[in-house]
Request: fold
Amino acid sequence: MSPWLPILMAVPVLGAIVVALLPKGSDKLAKQVTLLVSLAVLVLTGVMAAGFKPDGDRFQFVAEYDWIPSFGVKFGVGVDGVALVLVALSVVLVPIVVLASWHDADGVKTADGTLITPKRSVKTYFSLLLVLETMMIGVFAATDIFLFYVFFEAMLIPMYFMIGSYGGAQRSYAAVKFLLYSLFGGLLMLVAVIGLYVVAGSKTFMFPELVGAIQDPAMQKWLFGGFFIAFAIKAPLWPVHTWLPDAAAQAPAGAAVLLVGVLDKVGTFGMLRFCLELFPDAAKAFTVPIVVLAVISIIYGAIVAIGQTDMKRLIAYTSISHFGFIVMGVFAMSSVAQSGAALYMVNHGFATGALFLAAGFLIARRGSPFIGDYGGVQKVAPVLAGFFLVAGLAGLSLPGLSSFVSEFMVMIGTYSSQAHGSGALTAAAVVSAVAVILAAVYILWMVQRTLNGPTAEPVKPFKDVNAREIWVLAPLVALIIGFGLFPKPLLDVINPSVQQTLTNVGVPTSTIAEKGTGQ
Amino acid sequence: MESHIAEIAQHTGGVIGLSWLMIAFPLVGAFVLLVFGRFTNRWGHLLGVAMSLASFAVAVLAFFELVGFGEEQRRRAVHLYEFIPGMVDMGLLIDPLSISFALLITGVGSLIHIYSIGYMSHDEHRRRFFAYLNLFVAAMLLLVLADNYVGLFIGWEGVGLASYLLIGFWQFKPSAAVAAKKAFVVNRVGDFGLLVGMFLIWTTFGTLAFGELQPITSENPTTLAIGLLLLLGACGKSAQLPLQSWLLDAMEGPTPVSALIHAATMVTAGVYLVVRSGAFFFPEGSGAALAVAIVGAATLLAGAIIGCAKDDIKKGLAGSTMSQIGYMMLGAGLGPAGYAFAIGHLITHGFFKADLFLGAGSVMHGMNDEVDMRKYGGLRKLMPITFATFFIGYLAIIGFPLLSGYFTKDGIIETAVHHQPILGWLAVLGAGITGFYMSRMVFMTFFGQKRWADDAHPHESPSVMTIPLMILSLGALGLGAYLVLSNRLLLFLAPAVGRPEELPAFHFTSTPGLATLALVAVGAAFAWMRYGRAEVPSVQPRGSFLTTFARRDLYGDALNESLFMRPGQWLTRLAVYFDNRGIDGIVNGLAAGIGGSSGRLRRIQTGFARTYALSILIGAALLTGALLLVGNI
Reply:
């Protein structure tokens, strides 16, 4: 039994209680406490992660407590390599988001003094953030499937309020849409979770014990379907993606980062761990249709992104395209593609996080998310423009930046995958590579219209980044460049866990890749 | 016929062991200048120059260390670190081919850095300009020094980024911003080819390292496919047909950028890619090699024709760059017999074209940034040094006997006539056209009556600009003879790219050579009649159908617009409409219908729970349907 994960989960929620109980009028203190707590969690996670042994047991820092003994439900936590990097992603993003959201609940004013969002409760916002942090850690760390389900659903609540109370003009529409989509998916998953429990008949929800428990192929397919649809909505995958652009556009930039950067990853993480390992035969049978849906997401998301007029919606659609890559990698049945997909989950969090936040800083200055309202920012705020550009380049997977490594691995792994006689997956990889061109169009066209050209009149009073904004963006850019040139530390943690997954699925992984069929 | 290339030996120690410093110096320069921003404004340009010179020094030392090895030992691999575990080890390959490029990039690059001190002295963002130049040099060196395709690709896109930033350096001009984006996007079309090519190489051979691939003797469908995909990548970067359209617009960037990136180095990366991959995917006589040669021949003509009709001096030179790279591509498509001439022409072109571009920059510098040659005229007396160096570059590019271009271009032409007669004679024709358009440029700029506006005060540029010009013109004078006579370059490159069965001997009186000279003379004489002796109108005349065709870049942009841009815009609009109205909207409509409500419910912002519930349900049903259909439950 290791106390690490329970401690990591307890600290933010205790912090949230402290923040909520602070006396009236102590907004600044509330922010400072939140920042301090989230930094403490970051440091604790760092210390814990340093003790992770990539070649050790699959699940490490394991802790189990009985929760509902009559059903065999346990509070079981532990992380494998993939879960660890996603926990790390979450705890890195939270302090950054705290800093980025510093004034989001204060009532946002533009440079000329127009109020965009009215003043709202600061304490509530920041305690919701901390509660969400606990749940993000919990959902990736849960080894008990019931516990996973609880976090999966419970995460919706803080996010619902963050969008619904602190968001833009159409926040309630977006929040309700987000909630309903997610609840529907959750419902399907609940049915499948119960089905799994009943059919397996082993009186436990512990994931390691349920691997291989379902042998009947038809039953596998039904249960797979329940999990998969829930995760496809969460990810989101075409055609159940339409909630994301609304939610991301209406959410405050910080919340959007956690929504797209972390919450959506629960979907792809769930596919990787649960859909593949619990129902390997079904996963193999459905590989081709799912990869087709993934390729549609990749291309469709990119094309629709090109046509967006609202920056945040544009970024949301680029994410739909990127999630397509992740799903393709997860189901390509190749260790290279799957490691790439897991790495993609992390890299996408940094890249899209940076892009959302930089866009948020632009929007905070101008009071409008519309691309057409900008122009010539480069001239008046060159440093902010530089950050926005680098984040954008990460979004188009420029080699040398982190997202390139993962996208390359997903595509090359899918291309060379031997599953299904390889023809379909090879074609999928080639089609998905078209997104490389489309990505240049959607990012650089946005850059051209916002940063370049003559400076628009309302843009002229823009101030360049302040110290807080530099502290928000610089760490993300450093991570994007650092992992772009040196992805090995992440891959070394991810690879063994991916090998384990593929072994459980029954895909041979004797060599790292599907080498040398030609000569 | 097998092209023998030497084995790669692992290397530690010495200068070659430290060759990563070549990349590190300019990278650190770019980092310091960008991160410390305006604090480095005062001395930023000096740091930029120093970093480039430091890189050049390492390249020179590494070169001498390399030639100290026996011929078969001149391919040294330096391992750096594990990049993607199990797939890509990052390392550098120092061999005759890569060190030739490194010397060119850092040597010519340093001269252009120095020139830019003067050229950009009035620009308030000079420090940022030097940061981007340093970034470019670092990326370009990674491109040519990497010992595997992934490292090459990182450099490949890195130079694309630097090119994007520098074309758009004056990004407040909408035309510059558009040109920068266009260059990047068109390059990405080529990158698609390079990417898929890498997928295929990895899948087939299980490696992406140059050292682990085996030379092939005959082509098979897989290597043909790889070759064509790599060629697509090369076409994007090197502005070859059909991906040429970005290069002319790229002239929006400051002139030193045009000289360094869009003439001397980056645009030749496609030639490097083909020659580097030659032994693996473009064996002599293969379909892939033939495709390379055809692309080269077509582009050398297209570029030359475009060059004839441009009044903008930089665009004229851009057309000429396309054309000259076409010659290199043609050479690269002829197997080991052509490689040495292709690389030789690439090196001499690096000198004389940088000389010409910087000369054009010097003219612009003295003419209030005027680029229209119809507003020049008679400048030779006012800018004697610029004129003299430009004239040497001009003689070199038209292949005036004994100057650099004469030896390297003639080598390509002779080899082509021998291996692919039709393409070879097209190259002879191209040389004649070159004689015309380059003479036209010289006559319009430096000869005839002055046609400039009253407020222009043409003057010679400062020595920080003219000294680099003089050094470059020395290269334009003698480098070709040095490289080609007694096959110096060919024998030096042989361990890296293979050698032809029979060593070529340079003939001063071969038929194609004499025909070339005759056509060049005709072209120059024709130009003299039209633009030297006769008065040049200072307003562009309407011109014939053919002139318009050339002025409009052979309708390349129009073609792209109607084939890709417009349909793309429609597709985008349709997709956005479908996404807003279709998936959500159909469902909203259905909900309104089922609820028996009136049309106003059909608006998207209903907020009614059942609408979304239904929309989710339909989405989920679609998903399930798809799974059922294909998954055979």
